[in-house]
Amino acid sequence: MNILCLICHEELSQQMSWSSFLLSEPKVCDECYQSLRKINSPTCPHCFRPQENDHVCQDCLTWENSHHWKNILQQNVSVFEYNDSMKELLATFKFRGDAALVEVFQRDFLASYKTNFINEKIDYTIPIPLSPERLYERGFNQAKLLADFLPLTQTDILTRTHHEKQSKKSRQQRLTASNVFSIVDSSKIMNKKILLIDDIYTTGSTLRHAAKVLKNNGTDSVFSLTLIRS
Ligand SMILES: [Zn+2]
Ligand SMILES: [Zn+2]
Question: Domain limits at 8?
Answer without folding.
Answer: 1-34
